[in-house]
Specification:
The chain has about 500 residues and is an alpha/beta fold. It is built from 15 helices and 28 strands.
């Protein structure tokens, strides 16, 4: 195949849809016979994923790799920031934790050369194996105060020789100002690198924006490659927890009501996307203690700060409600940090998470946890109890938990989790619910034969990548995009 220039999806701001469009382009390039790979030099997210070789990257790049039909690697996201407070993040470099940094020291220009070198080396390794590279920027490309220390937006595009496509969110308003301002605030060199504009999240009749499209092109001197309508019917894993606000209880009868505790530091909430998509389930996020009573199944999710979130559960009254729900015969399930919280005690002797050194857990599982400096990051294959079906998932956690009644047995001989009965158990394994044998196990106590379906989540995800590709082909001039990318020198 002809070598294509790298392409960067840059944004007029955060949450404009860069990740989704990058995912769709990865699938389009794959469908057209290319071998694409995603790349984001620096990502900030609590949703992360374990690569096959046991390294950690942002979940968005793992999703994009899946859409591209390739295994994910740490080269796709060499720098990951995992916020642990208002001003502090854990810094993950080339897939491995490298300590905590406060925002002020991290985003200063000084000391950025080493991070820039890591990003460039990762890109070079990726570019030598795949064609094209689909880069993603971060936030807005016009933050002048951060330009000197930029390693993810236009400076990365310059290094990669990437054509930049500017993505703007028309739904939030002010699209003309945000596009024009984003273009005009670039240096003359960077402005020439912007080869197209995509207007995203349009609502209504597209014909009403035809004049606006022409005005933008005349104003900026850059072609508008497409106006993409809202695509709420397409279900792709989200990266940002802001998406959780739209997931509310429905009044649909006969569905199993699954409530996930909306922890302040919730992480890897994509664990529950399978429940959101499942036709038998009404998934919602529990934000006040009283909502615990409305769920058949209560799930305590992962957390970036487990002790702080456990303290939150106790102070706000969630803990008492969860324990009462268990006593009433409802299901309580913990994943990763939630699994740790369900035990009898969590201790942090080395101060891994901060000031709280020890707290009693909810006492629902006969386990105790010691948080450790060393992070476990790996993909796992396992069987639920003695089932013959091999399941898949991944672990990302800092802590060790002893259990005498494991939930799963790994194919490498290890064990995971703790099982009390079919309505009370916990596990370190993210993605455990993506396996039908596990999902059926937790839903069976609440199912009726009149409303039982076969649901293959992996097939569903593949169909959604194809649907996203078809959607973008309909509303973006892909032929023109190829012409831009084929001007590769």
């Amino acid at each position: 195949m002809k070598r294509l220039s790298p392409i960067m999806l840059a944004g007029t701001g955060s949450d404009v849809g860069k990740s989704l469009i990058a995912t769709g382009l990865c699938r389009i390039f794959l469908q057209d016979g290319y071998s694409p790979a995603p790349f984001k030099a620096q990502n900030m997210a609590l949703n992360s994923y374990a690569t096959p070789d046991g390294l950690e990257i942002g979940r968005a790049q793992a999703v994009q790799a899946e859409a591209a039909g390739i295994p994910c690697s740490s080269d796709m996201n060499p720098i990951l920031l995992k916020p642990s407070g208002e001003h502090t993040s854990q810094v993950v470099l080339n897939g491995k934790p490298s300590g905590n940094r406060d925002a002020y020291s991290y985003f200063r220009k000084e000391g950025k050369e080493e991070l820039r070198r890591l990003a460039h080396e990762a890109f070079d390794r990726l570019s030598s194996c795949y064609n094209p590279i689909v880069l993603e920027g971060a936030g807005s490309i016009s933050e002048l105060n951060l330009r000197d220390g930029d390693i993810v937006n236009m400076s990365m595009a310059r290094y990669a020789g990437a054509d930049v496509i500017l993505v703007a969110d028309i739904d939030r308003g002010g699209v003309f100002a945000s596009v024009y301002g984003s273009v005009m605030l670039q240096t003359p060199e960077d402005r020439q690198r912007i080869k197209g504009i995509i207007i995203n999240k349009f609502r209504g009749d597209l014909r009403l924006f035809e004049s606006g499209r022409k005005q933008l092109e005349n104003l900026c001197g850059i072609p508008v490659l497409g106006v993409v309508p809202m695509a709420k019917h397409i279900k792709i894993d989200e990266e940002d927890s802001v998406a959780l606000e739209s997931k509310n209880k429905s009044t649909t009868e006969n569905k199993v009501k699954v409530g996930v505790i909306a922890l302040p530091h919730i992480s890897n909430f994509t664990d529950f996307n399978v429940l959101e998509r499942h036709p038998e389930v009404n998934l919602f996020y529990i934000t006040v203690p009283e909502e615990v009573d409305e769920a058949d199944i209560i799930i305590i999710p992962g957390s970036k700060n487990t002790l702080s979130d456990l303290n939150h559960l106790r102070k706000k009254g969630f803990a008492r409600r969860i324990i009462s729900a268990r006593e009433a015969g409802k299901s309580v399930i913990g994943i990763c940090g939630g699994y740790q919280m369900m035990g009898t005690m969590i201790s942090d002797p080395d101060g891994v998470e901060g000031g709280i050194r020890e707290l009693p857990g909810l006492g629902l599982l006969p386990v105790s946890t010691v948080l450790t400096v060393t992070k476990t990051t790996r993909q796992v294959q396992f069987r639920l109890f003695d089932s013959e079906e091999i399941c898949e998932g991944y672990e990302i956690h800092m802590g060790h938990t002893e259990s005498s009644s494991p939930l799963t047995r790994n194919t490498d001989g290890g064990e995971d989790g703790c099982f009390v009965d079919e309505r009370c158990f916990g596990s370190y394994i993210h993605g455990i619910l993506d396996n039908s044998v596990v999902l059926d196990y937790i839903l069976n106590p609440y199912r009726t034969q009149s409303f039982k379906t076969d649901f293959d989540y992996r097939s569903f995800k593949e169909s959604q990548y194809d649907a996203l590709a078809a959607w973008l082909r309909e509303y973006i001039d892909i032929d023109r995009l190829y012409k831009i990318m084929m001007a590769y020198d």
